[in-house]
Amino acid sequence: MPPVGVSETCYRYSLRLKAENEVIADLLTGLTDARKAWGFGLCFRHLRNVKGHPWNHKRFYRIYCELELNLRNKP
């Protein structure tokens, strides 16, 4: 029985994106290892347009930042 004030659908909700996030992380790390000069934009466009993955840019960017794949800014 859910706690008082919480709907049953919220109480029983389970997150199902963990496996997909790991797939995205593997794709991003493999791509950045192969092409070290590519930033987020080129990685996202390659995976979205060339490889045809359906995930949106916000999800890619969140995982990209969690993996700390950001390139440094050159002065």
Describe the structure in your own words.
Helices cover 57% and strands 0% of the residues. With 75 residues, the protein is mainly alpha-helical. The protein has a domain of 51 residues. The chain starts with 7 loop residues before the first helix and ends in a 9-residue tail after the last helix.
Topology:
Layout: H1 8-12, H2 18-34, H3 40-50, H4 57-66
Helix pairs in contact: 2-4
Brief overview:
The chain contains four helices and no strands.
User: Could you tell me the radius of gyration in angstroms?
Assistant: 17 Å
- The portion of residues forming beta strands comes to under 5%
Overall 3D geometry?
A: elongated
Order of helices and strands: HHHH
**How confident is the prediction overall: mean pLDDT?**
86
Uncertain segments: none
Organism: Yoonia vestfoldensis
Protein name: Transposase
Keywords summarizing the entry:
mainly alpha, 4 helices, 57% helix, Transposase
